[in-house]
Specification:
Blueprint lengths: L2 E3 L3 E17 L1 H4 L9 E2 L10 H19 L9 E5 L6 H7 L6 E3 L6 H14 L5 E8 L1 H8 L15 E2 L2 E8 L11 E7 L14 H20 L8 E4 L3 H14 L8 E3 H4 L12 E2 L1 H17 L5 E5 L1 E3 L3 H5 L6 E3 L1 E5 L2
Parallel strand pairs: 2-3, 4-5, 4-6, 7-12, 10-11, 10-13
Antiparallel strand pairs: 1-2, 2-8, 2-9, 6-8, 9-16, 13-16, 14-15
Helix pairs in contact: 2-3, 6-7
């Protein structure tokens, strides 16, 4: 039987397999270090649409379509979609995925949504409630700026602590079976740790890395305690969106707790853009940041056996326009998924 481990973790007796994935990104992401690894790079960030929000919906629609095509599956082969985005009422998901007519379970974990959807999808399969599911999330630089900060036409100056919301979407096909039509999985999910809301009282929406790092530190410590593990047990410990500022905060917080992750730590926000040639300040963030990096880069490293076992832990800042305008703090959350090579 699947096993609840410690306070907040689950160990899967039978792993859940990541059969296929697909990534679709914007022009800036395509110009970055991972540009050649993405499945599709848009010619412009409007993706032929009339609004930024419609463009983000298109990102999700195309990512799911590509993932299904690569897995040689039809929408009717999928039990559920676990999906979410950063926009109000998850509108990018609702409008982007409606054409597939797959039962939808909408999730919201801010930039941690990729980890949350993978954990929920894997648990539904491991529990016998589904055979195959798709997990998908997205973000768009312009729609996120309009939602949480300032419209682009305002032309505000961004502080160096600010991160750049990634324009991108990735979809992952999960299955209970180790082979589908003779196809070998990309990797397998073997365990997960579900994070809780952590609030250090920070209120700076232009320094999301510092706001989210405490949640990442809390979830990582809980993971190590629950599984009696150490950082050295993983080839990489991967956060989603902390950037340069959040990475330093996370490493310092964990050292105070007795864990040194400096050798294993990698942040998707620092991998997706070139700090020297692309002006993204502290790095990348957004629901799409960790998702497209997982699909295009991390799974490739596992497929090629460059890495054997990683802890994938996207981080989310749980603020809204309402909470920020009312002067509330920015709580964080982080969910960890253990992904292993085949």
């Amino acid at each position: 039987m699947n096993q609840k481990v410690g306070k907040a973790s689950v160990r899967l007796e039978q792993p859940v397999y990541i059969m296929q994935s697909a990534s679709v990104v914007g022009t800036k992401e395509g110009e970055g270090p991972l540009g050649l690894l993405f499945d599709k790079v848009g010619q412009d960030d409007m993706f032929g649409c009339k609004s930024w929000e419609e463009a983000e919906s298109t990102l999700q629609k195309e990512a799911v379509g590509l993932a299904l095509e690569k897995a040689a599956l039809r929408p009717e082969d999928i039990s559920y979609v676990f999906a979410g985005d950063l926009l109000g009422q998850s509108m990018a998901t609702s409008f982007g995925l409606s054409t597939y007519q797959i039962p939808l379970l909408g999730v919201y974990g801010a930039c941690s949504t990729c980890g949350e959807s993978l954990a929920l999808g894997a648990m539904s399969i491991a529990g016998g409630f589904a055979d195959k599911v798709i997990c998908v999330t997205s973000s768009h630089f312009a729609s996120a700026e309009k939602e949480f900060r300032f419209p682009l036409d305002y032309g505000n100056q961004r502080p160096l602590s600010a991160t750049w919301t990634v324009t991108g979407s990735a979809a992952f096909v999960l299955s209970a079976l180790p082979r589908e039509g003779g196809r070998k999985p990309k990797a397998r999910i073997s365990a997960m740790t579900i994070g809780k809301v952590v609030d250090y009282g920070l209120k700076d929406s232009m320094n999301m890395g510092a706001c989210m790092a405490p949640a990442a530190a809390d979830s990582l410590e809980q993971h190590f305690v629950d599984f009696a593990s150490q950082p050295k047990d993983y080839d990489k410990i991967i956060t989603g969106d902390l950037g340069k500022v959040g990475q330093r905060v996370l490493i310092d917080l964990l050292r105070k707790k007795g864990y040194d992750i400096s050798e294993q730590h990698m942040d998707c926000g620092l991998e997706i853009f070139d700090a020297a040639s692309q002006d993204t300040h502290a790095g990348g963030s957004g629901c799409g940041c960790s998702a497209v990096t997982l699909s295009a880069y991390i799974l490739k490293q596992l497929e090629e056996n460059n890495w054997r076992k990683v802890l994938f832990m996207p981080t989310g800042a749980l603020l809204s326009k309402t909470s920020f305008n009312e002067g509330l703090s920015v709580p964080g959350i982080a969910h960890g998924v253990v992904i292993e090579a085949m």
